[in-house]
Amino acid sequence: MPSSALPLASVHPGGAPRRDPWAGQVRLARVRRVIAVGAGKGGVGKSTVAVNLALALAAEGIRVGLLDADIYGPSMPILLGITACMARARVTPERHIVPLLAHGLPFVSFGFFLGAGAPVVWRGPMVAKAVRQFATGVAWPELDLLVVDLPPGTGDVPLSLAQALALDGAVVVTQPARVAAVEAEKAAALFRALEVPVLGIVENMTGPFGRGGGRAVADTLEVPFLGEIPFDSAVVSDGDAGTPTVLTRPQSAAALALQTIARRVAESLGWQHIDGDGARDSSA
Hints:
Homodimer. It comes from Gemmatirosa kalamazoonensis. Binds and transfers iron-sulfur (Fe-S) clusters to target apoproteins. Can hydrolyze ATP. One of its GO terms (biological process) is iron-sulfur cluster assembly. This protein is of the alpha/beta class. The protein has a single domain, classed as Rossmann fold, CATH 3.40.50. About 35% of the residues lie in helices and about 20% in strands. It is built from ten helices and twelve strands. The protein has helices spanning about 45-60, 75-80, 85-90, 125-135, 155-165, 180-195, 215-220, 235-240, 245-250, 255-270, and strands spanning about 30-40, 65-70, 90, 95-100, 100, 105-110, 145-150, 170-175, 200-205, 225-230, 270-275, 280. The strands form three sheets. Strands 5-6-2-7-1-8-9-10 form an eight-stranded mixed beta sheet, sandwiched between helices. β8, α6 (about 180-195) and β9 (about 200-205) form a beta-alpha-beta unit. α1 (about 45-60) packs across α10 (about 255-270). The longest helix is centred in the middle third of the chain and has 16 residues, at about 180-195. The chain starts with about 30 loop residues before the first strand and ends with a strand. Mean pLDDT is about 85; it is low at about 5-15.
């Protein structure tokens, strides 16, 4: 829990202590590790990276679930080919959300409960309450890893998520352009302020938009550079069709890059890749 940058408790001018904002933080009973995928700005392909990263990790033999916490623009139902998700969503008698299965991954999205095209016009406290209920109120199966897709930026959602769930790390996605890299630094700084380890930086759409922004951010922050994903217009088509690239075109340059990034993320969390036998938890 953060101690210096974000104090655990503060005091009103009158002397009454505030409620500890971290007092409700929990570790999910059936999930061994939780990582967040974030970005400083929109349009860098964060959700596409999160989906393909989760699938590539699952291909390593890791039991992975996906939580789409992008409350303002939940795109994972489209990226995973989940149609009519609102009609299919259900809850247990204990009022826990039951994940749907998408390409073998247990999956939950804010899109399950928001009408198509309906804007989210909520104030900060409403967002914080929704994120907390959403993050801790899912009937997950036994998972090795939960991948959480955050909205871009450094607002209420990542802070509320960190206060609700103990996070084992964060991956920050950027593009080569300087404006994206500057915002990626802010996102990484937020995770550090929350004392969430930054597992590394991913540079997406390398090529026609330049190269090197992601590595520069990693060097500046002294965190790992996880890799470059080359620009590939077919990745967009794959996502629109609900057929992620690592599944439909596993030998493409983009998919191979994502597979490499997934292995580096797995290794940072304690899993070792064993050729022909997926990943093995070296911390067990």
